[in-house]
């Protein structure tokens, strides 16, 4: 049965998944790039950005698997881009260029209506105004038997966790302190939600932690 997964989600030692003051020039917020130092050198990321080479090993294995077997993605409007408020026009089509790395339908949570945007390579961005349940229903239908990945950002992951809708959470704890930003787990009782740690692996750049929900498919 298909699962709802949060994968390769990076968190600072002090619990932030994005830095403060996200902007066009600083999509991850101040200091946010330090969260992803484990990811940038991997072969998976290098191929994603059209490069060659890259590291293999544990970080790359997690990175590669995080992209496999996904039938649909869900993301929040802030992960999709820096535009806030009503869409002024249709010019913003994500950070990822003409051929985004998703290659499946992506459901973007937003309060502001917008027609779907079809990109090259199988990615279509659908804008969902009805909340997390509607987005998940549509993503499950689109994904058929495959998994649904909750891509981020922080607010989106928190909502799906709090609603008890996530089956598996792979966190990448990065050795960085952000001090402020978007707190990922504040006020969320993971054991009460049924999660336990089923795997942890340390590398030079991160600690990978897999949390699995009791009774998940
Ligand atoms: N650490 C990681 O691995 C990782 C992964 C992915 C992204 N990120 C980062 O996370 C940051 C973005 O996270 P974020 O917490 O600021 O925002 P987010 O979850 O990406 O998006 C939040 C926005 O989405 C819309 N939204 C969310 N829930 C909704 C709902 N139930 N109904 C309707 N609209 C809803 C709202 O936008 P409107 O009201 O404006 O429509 C809301 O302000 C970025 O810096 C991104 O780079 C980090």
Mean pLDDT over the full residue set: 97
Count of structural domains: 1
Hetero groups: NADP nicotinamide-adenine-dinucleotide phosphate
Q: Proportion of β residues?
A: 25-35%
Radius of gyration: 16 Å
Might you state the CATH topology name?
Dihydrofolate Reductase, subunit A
Instruction: Compute the number of strand runs.
Output: 11
General shape? globular
Number of helices: 5
Give the class-level CATH name: Alpha Beta
The protein's oligomeric status is: single chain
Main sheet attributes: strand count, strand direction, barrel closure: 9 strands, mixed
CATH superfamily: Dihydrofolate Reductase, subunit A
Helix and strand content put the structural class at alpha/beta
Architecture, according to CATH? Answer: 3-Layer(aba) Sandwich
Order of helices and strands: EEHHEHEEEHEHEEEE
Biggest sheet, strands in spatial order? 5-6-4-3-7-1-8-11-10
Termini gap? 6 Å
Low-pLDDT runs: none
Helicity range: 10-25%
Describe the protein's architecture and organization.
This protein is α/β, with parallel strands linked by helices. It has a single domain, classed as Dihydrofolate Reductase, subunit A (3-Layer(aba) Sandwich). 19% of the residues lie in helices and 28% in strands. It contains 5 helices and 11 strands. It has a 9-stranded mixed sheet with strand order 5-6-4-3-7-1-8-11-10, sandwiched between helices. The protein has a two-stranded antiparallel ribbon with strand order 2-9. Residues 9-10, 17-18, 22, 27-29, 32, 35, 75-79, 84, 109-112, 131-132, 151-156, 159, 182 line the site of NADP nicotinamide-adenine-dinucleotide phosphate. NADP nicotinamide-adenine-dinucleotide phosphate binds at residues 9-10, 17-18, 22, 27-29, 32, 35, 75-79, 84, 109-112, 131-132, 151-156, 159, 182.
């Amino acid at each position: 049965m298909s699962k709802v997964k949060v994968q390769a989600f990076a968190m600072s030692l002090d619990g932030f998944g994005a830095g403060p003051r996200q902007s066009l020039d600083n999509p991850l917020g101040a200091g946010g790039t330090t969260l992803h130092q484990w990811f940038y050198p991997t072969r998976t990321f290098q191929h994603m950005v059209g490069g060659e080479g890259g590291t293999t090993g544990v970080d790359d294995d997690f990175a590669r698997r995080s992209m496999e077997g996904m039938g649909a993605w869900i993301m929040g409007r802030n992960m999709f881009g820096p535009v806030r408020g009503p869409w002024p026009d249709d010019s913003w089509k994500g950070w990822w260029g003409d051929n985004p790395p998703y290659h499946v339908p992506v459901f973007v949570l937003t309060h502001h209506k917008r027609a779907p945007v079809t990109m090259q390579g199988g990615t279509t961005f659908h804008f969902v105004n009805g909340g997390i349940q509607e987005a998940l229903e549509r993503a499950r239908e689109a994904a058929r038997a495959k998994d649904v990945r909750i891509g981020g950002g922080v607010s989106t992951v928190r909502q799906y966790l709090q609603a008890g809708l996530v089956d598996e959470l792979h966190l990448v704890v990065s050795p960085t302190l952000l001090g402020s930003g978007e707190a990922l787990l504040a006020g969320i009782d993971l054991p009460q939600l049924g999660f336990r740690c089923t795997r942890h692996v340390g590398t030079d750049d991160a600690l990978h932690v897999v949390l699995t929900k009791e009774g998940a498919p």
